Amino acid sequence: MLFDSRRQRLALLLPAVMLLAALTLYPIGQMLIYSFSHVDYAAASREWAGWDNYRELFSDWFFTTSLKNTLSFSIAGSLIQVGLGLGLALLLYRPFRGRQWILSLLIYPMMLSTLVCSAIWRVWFHYDFGLLNSCLRALGLMPLEWLSSPQLALLSVMLVDIWQWTPMACLIILAGLQSIPKEVLEAAQSDGANRWRQLWHIILPLIRQPLMLALLLRSIDTFKLFDKVYALTGGGPGYATETLSLYIYQQGFKFFNLGLASAAAVIMLLFAGALSLGYAWQMLRRPDHGDR
């Protein structure tokens, strides 16, 4: 009976495993093969290139620039979003009048598609008629070239991403806050712990996993950023906002250099995998009983 039950479980899992292999493992395998090859679209041929694509990749200024932009965007954007999400979750944790309306409005940016969100912010970023520069002029300040300045363009795209996806981090952390037993906080308050001590010594340790989950999801999503950059700046001005995803797209579908694009995709996959493994280890790590 045990053998039959095991066979049934394997039979039920087999379609999902086959679908995963067809949609995930096979493309990754093809990408690895292409990354070590010179691919000729016109002749429909492929020649083994060894490490040539990777050597060319790391000597390419455009690749290193896109990697630096991607890492800067991912680290800063995800940390800001999780930090703001934590602050909003703490504000929305306790019930008050109008809380449901604020929560409904809070998730509104998440419901917009990326192109709609980018179109809205592109109008707000307009130098002459945009909302942001109108506010700056009303305060007696000089208007800014949000999308055409090399120093501000990446920050502007980051601002759009923060506006759209901070609510997701807030909802994940808020769910973690609501899972904390009220008796724990009441006991800490009766022992004389002020709100700062409750936050630092009780709340944050208890919501470590929701915090790490929000940080993991936002880090991976920001690391593969493509759509907002493509819609807002196209990678410009110059290459100030070019990301790894945009670099891969241009190499593969604009310059038809499939080997170099695949090598860049492998590097991107390794970075994303390292991020995922690091956060997963932190989430699954159990506290040492000896520290208690």
TrEMBL record:
The chain crosses the membrane at residues 12-36, 71-93, 105-124, 152-177, 198-217, 255-281. Residues 67-279 form the ABC transmembrane type-1 domain. One of its GO terms (cellular component) is plasma membrane. GO terms for biological process: transmembrane transport. SUPFAM superfamilies: MetI-like. PROSITE patterns: ABC_TM1 (PS50928). InterPro entries: ABC_transporter_permease, MetI-like, MetI-like_sf. It is found in: Cell inner membrane; Cell membrane. This is Sugar ABC transporter permease. It comes from Affinibrenneria salicis. The lineage of its organism: Bacteria, Pseudomonadati, Pseudomonadota, Gammaproteobacteria, Enterobacterales.
